[in-house]
Amino acid sequence: MDIKGKIYNDFLNRIERFKVQNGPDKIRKQHAKGKLHARERITLLFDKNSFEELDAFVTSATPDTGFGKIDSAFGDGVVIGHGRVNGRLVYVYSQDFTVMGGSLGAVHAKKIVKVQELALKVGAPIIGLIDSGGARIQEGVASLSGYTSIFHNNVRSSGVIPQISVILGPAAGGAVYSPALTDFVFMAKNTSYMFLTGPNVVKEVLNEEVTFDELGGEETHARKSGVANFIYEDEENAILGVRKLLSFFPSNNLENPPYVERISKKEKNVEKLRDIVPDDANKPYDVKKVIELIADQDSFFEVSELFAPNIVVGFARLNGKAVGIIANQPKVLAGVIDINSSLKGARFVRFCDAFNIPIITLEDVPGFLPGLDQEHNGIIKHGAKLLFAFSEATVPKVTVILRKAYGGAFCVMNSKNIGGDYNFAWPTAEIAVMGPEGAVSILYRKELEKAEDPKKLKKEFAAKYRHEVANPYIADEKGYIDEVIDPADTRWKLITAFETLENKHVDQPERKHGNMPL
Question: Is 81 annotated in the active site?
Answer without folding.
Answer: no
